[in-house]
Description:
By secondary structure, this protein is an alpha+beta fold. It folds into 2 domains: 10-158 and 202-256, Urease metallochaperone UreE, N-terminal domain (HSP40/DNAj peptide-binding domain), CATH 2.60.260.20; 263-373, Sandwich (HSP40/DNAj peptide-binding domain), CATH 2.60.260.20. Helix content is 28%, strand content 26%. The chain contains 9 helices and 15 strands. The protein has a 4-stranded mixed β-sheet with strand order 10-11-15-14. It is elongated. It starts with 9 loop residues before the first helix and ends with a helix. Bound molecules: zinc ion (2 copies). One zinc ion binds at residues 166, 168-169, 173, 190, 192-193, 197.
Amino acid sequence: MLTRCSVKDPYEVLSVPRNATEAEIKSAFRRQGAKHHPDRNPDDAGASQRFKELNAAYQILSDSKKRTMYDRFGAAGLGAARGGGAGPFGGMPIDFSEIKIDGIFGDLLDALGIKFGDRGDLQLDLEIDFNEAAFGCTKKVNYDRLVDCVACQGRGAVKDTDFIMCGTCDGRGRVRYQQGVFPIAVERTCSVCHGKGRTVQLACEGCVGVGMKTKKCNLDVTLSPGVQSGSTRTIAGRGNIGRGRKPGDVEITVKVRPHELFRRVGDNVVCQLPVTFAQAVLGDEIEIPTLDGKGVLRVPPGTQPGTILRIRGKGIPKRVVGGRGDQMIEVVVEIPTQLNEEQRLLVVQLADQLGESVQPQRRSFVEKLRDLFN
Ligand SMILES: [Zn+2]
Ligand SMILES: [Zn+2]
């Protein structure tokens, strides 16, 4: 029900199973890396992006620490994302440095579309049916979010003595570097300890030192009648929590599944109605689908192909002004394709009888033609 398309799973990128051995991962990368290498695909603009993803996937899965990290956090979240949740990394900063994995891991995940931001906001897609969108609905949304690890209370290490001073910044939390061609030293936050000045020496086993774990949770989302595909709902405070931060939000994007028969145009519902040649000529009462179930439509005698018939008040409920839109029915006249000899003769007889007098469009066309050449 919930999807998150932009994020790539390294196992899927390399087309290997979750329990693939190191050798299998290596050979998958060799095989696919050779095929997608940008040098071998000079005319394919997408090749370099595919190669970047393959490379990132390989670097994550070929390193046992990064693979463990991904399995514990990334895979759980991504796996759930496809079945009913979202990647827990959505917007939550994680100090990979604390488990002695450098910021490169962050870059690798970034190459696969797994982003890091300052807030713990999560983005989910919620798919609903056409009728649910028309009349409103309440849906249960299941998803994963990150919360503080209970075992280490979010510290990443079990005891306070399990930390050591950060060697990169000598415990200062900031490092100096030189920017550009000018020899000006600039200070920035240490990317290894993220400004804390210390790193985890002995990681908590429950969370591999991250200090956070994924937790399954759910939300009831009520959508009012007439909700549009692509509209969003923000539920405050239900995103990732932890590290003493204010909890992030959950932003839900509504995706309305297309209907087999109906199309929505504003507050109106549009559908096509195939009728026989005889029904169009003679008129008929025809059973039709409406949003409220079966209905009956009177097709008047002499209905032309493409005529739009309207049933008032059978469309989408109007949110602001009240009432409902209309149902618009486009008449499609089906011409018989296979006639036996007897039927063919009947049509010939009918044609002789009708002449041009009873066919308004044909008559005006012939008149215009006459004007044109006289
Ligand atoms: Zn922990
Ligand atoms: Zn540091």
